């Protein structure tokens, strides 16, 4: 399986409409890949909180339309990163879209863990409530987004639902880049799964982005890592590696579930 992660640079001087066209062209250039992954909130920038409401769109809005055409033209499965979605009831969500090679909508994931504590995304957007996996011809994808990476129980749930490849678009800040790399490798090791973590470059609302998109194999080895700027990271994966790792080192079978806190 050939995967291409497009680490997009977000520049406030570039309009959403122009960036959408530019990214669609980048997707089309990945013809020959099997799966293409875009970052989190690449239309606005993950830290451009004041833009979320104005830029929010429905699931069938202009970003999905443009990315569906690009996926169909390239003949690829496209994880189109995430968009600020406005639900019909008016609620905003940080929503990821998975498109098939015909441009059809294969899966939707609304980010469960919203970043910001008492401001930004955490108070402006609703929380998703569903774990989402999607079967593609080579593997089963488990979908998560950025801050989700810090919550291992979410990924255990995805693995229990059959996930073999964890896809994580992000807008991760440079000042915590060490955590980005560490957590991506940890999620791969503990779940014996591939991790495809696609970040952004540039600066979002004054927040420098980490870049350094990364692909990790089920043993925790880094197969490829981008630099800090805009870049396309392409790597060939052997999906059979997941089953081989889980058979050779069957740690997942030794999980102890249902533990309760000590009585006081």
Automatic annotation (TrEMBL):
Family: Belongs to the carbon-nitrogen hydrolase superfamily. NIT1/NIT2 family.
Keyword Hydrolase: yes
Gene3D superfamilies: Carbon-nitrogen hydrolase
Keyword hit for Chaperone: no
Name this protein carries in UniProt: Carbon-nitrogen family hydrolase
UniProt domain CN hydrolase: residue ranges: 1-239
Matching InterPro entries: C-N_Hydrolase, C-N_Hydrolase_sf, UPF0012_CS
SUPFAM superfamilies from the UniProt entry: Carbon-nitrogen hydrolase
Entry GO MF terms: hydrolase activity
Keywords for the protein's UniProt record, in alphabetical order: Hydrolase
Pfam families linked to this entry: CN_hydrolase
């Amino acid at each position: 399986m050939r995967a291409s992660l497009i680490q997009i640079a977000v520049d406030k001087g570039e309009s959403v409409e122009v960036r959408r066209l530019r990214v669609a062209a980048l997707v089309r250039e990945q013809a020959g890949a099997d799966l293409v992954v875009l970052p989190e909130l690449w239309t606005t920038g993950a830290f451009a909180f004041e833009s979320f409401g104005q830029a929010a769109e429905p699931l069938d809005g202009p970003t999905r339309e443009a990315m569906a055409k690009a996926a169909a033209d390239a003949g690829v499965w496209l994880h189109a990163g995430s968009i600020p979605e406005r639900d019909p009831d008016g609620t905003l969500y940080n929503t990821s879209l998975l498109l098939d090679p015909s441009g059809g909508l294969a899966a939707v994931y609304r980010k469960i863990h919203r970043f910001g504590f008492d401001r930004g995304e955490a108070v402006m957007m609703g929380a998703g409530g569903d774990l989402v996996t999607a079967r593609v011809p080579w593997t089963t994808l488990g979908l998560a987004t950025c801050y989700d990476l810090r919550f291992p129980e979410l990924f255990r749930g995805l693995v229990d639902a059959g996930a073999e490849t964890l896809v994580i678009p992000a807008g991760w800040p440079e000042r915590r880049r060490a955590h980005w790399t560490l957590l991506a490798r940890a999620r791969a090791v503990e779940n014996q799964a591939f991790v495809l973590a696609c970040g952004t470059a540039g600066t979002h609302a004054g927040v420098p982005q980490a870049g350094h998109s990364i692909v990790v194999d089920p043993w925790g080895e880094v197969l490829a890592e981008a630099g800090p700027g805009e870049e396309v990271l392409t790597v060939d994966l052997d999906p059979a590696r997941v089953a081989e790792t889980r058979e050779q080192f069957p740690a997942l079978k030794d999980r102890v579930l249902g533990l309760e806190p000590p009585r006081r």
